[in-house]
Please model this.
Amino acid sequence: MISINQLKELSTQVRRDIVRMVFNCQSGHPGGSLGCVEFFVALYAHVLKHNAEKFDMEGKGQDLFFLSNGHISPVWYATLARTGYFDVQELNTFRKLNTRLQGHPATHEGLPGIRIASGSLGQGMSAAIGAALAKRLDGDDRWVFCLTGDGELEEGQCWEAMMFAAHHKVDNLIVAVDWNGQQIDGPIDEVMSLGNLQAKWEAFGWDVLVLNNGNDMESMINMLNNAKEHSKQGKPVVILMKTVMGYGVDFMAGTHKWHGKAPNQEQVDLALAQLHTETLQDF
Amino acid sequence: MNINDIIATGTKATRDGFGQGLLELGRQNPNVVGLTADLMESLQMQHFQKEFPERFFQVGIAEANMIGIAAGLATGGKIPFTGTFANFSTGRVYDQIRQSIAYSHKNVKICASHAGLSLGEDGATHQILEDLGMMRMLPGMVVINPCDYSQTKAATIAIAEYNGPVYLRFGRPAWPMFTLENQKFEIGKALHLASGTDVTIFATGHLVWSAIEAAKELQTQGISCELINIHTIKPLDEAAILDSVSKTRAVVVAEEHQRNGGLGDAIANLLVQRLPVPMEYVGVKDTFGESGKPAELLDKYGLSKKDVVWAVKDVLDRKTGSM
Model:
């Protein structure tokens, strides 16, 4: 069993990977990626039952993960590489011509670990529900996880999916919301307020869990285990996960300004200096 | 075959062919699942739902979510058939189809009823005439528009054997039945209905019957029409088209769709590169439809037997003129 310290070291390395990937191609989304590192590392290195070496699309007998807010592909790619889905050197190719690491996640180039394209927002939860229904039909008792952004919830399809999952009692599904309060054009409360998000999910018939520090590894592990315990009781489960966009790099943290912007040489040096030393060797 | 040998054995809606096909498919293949967005009986999916309730999902009036759930079910190894009107199966959910199904190459069958003007009284909001174009533009999408009950039933069964996204288009009204009851449907293989020498008529969907009636009338006037049913608009049976056109050297295309983007444009695209010949379209001329009876609408918007007859005469004038 991997220790909390090892998970934290892995998180630091994934953060270094994110910053360097985005710097390398001078393109991509570092803010949301940095904020979701603890979620991805906890999920892939500790919670999921999965087979990184022998990825197969259907994933029968395994836990599945769907990323709805596809623009945070850097954190997903770095986590997949660091947990054995493909060689970490491939992170060098992010967003470059002929890469399997497309700007937004895709199945088209055959990258192991990806089960559906995402990037056009609001679609991932529906796909995760479908995969959860397939597991139910097959008598497969594993879970389906899905991450969605909070700004993304402005898309109407999300609410269609929420209604469906409750109505059809899709209780092998655990959705996490990256509740960082930011979107491209500014704070969510200024762009398009979500109101009382917790009350809305509850009103839609979900079992709602709130994680106040989504950037603390112990809390994240406990919450994901807690969510599994809440599942399979007739209701879909959602974790409203407070995170800090840009977490780990002080000048990127807590602002929408690094949502989709690459650092320059000076900034990347500064960021990497804050992320201590490489823990697992940089790609 | 001579055109006069093609006779209608009765009438039934193509959507009924879909409903029966889906039921038979459900019995043959346990991986087939159905979804609808509050239009189960309009799509005749109740037969499948009654026999396989656990494999049928009512999504409510939420087409975008239905497309996404279908993509997820396909990821898990199921073969989902989504059912709603053609309008809500395409334009309303184009981005969901594009990203979650086409780009992700999911084995989802998008089944679309009430296509075209023949939907009738509901009017232009529901009479989609652009769906073939939209679906044809998507890389990797198979696009099928069967012509009668039996062909729709056979197509429904056949597409489950193909691994990839398919758009299957059919319609609401009772329509003449003239293809074989237990035919084998081959995706991408044009169906040769009648041999002729003066002109080739390529027709798809409901308009195949209009083309048959037109060809019969033209034969009495001494004009010999080759008639080919293009049920699969993508991938197009290029060999069959070129083979026929190299003989007749004049083309009419008939479809219940805008002239822009449909079967006519698909064939024109092929012929302009490989075998340019005089060609006429029978299709809607860049306008929306309206309420009315199916036959009245097809007549008003230029999709009836007489329009096919005129198109053939026009194209033959140009063919003679170019000689």
Summary: Chain B has a mean pLDDT of 97. Residues 214 and 305 of chain B are 5 Å apart (CA to CA).
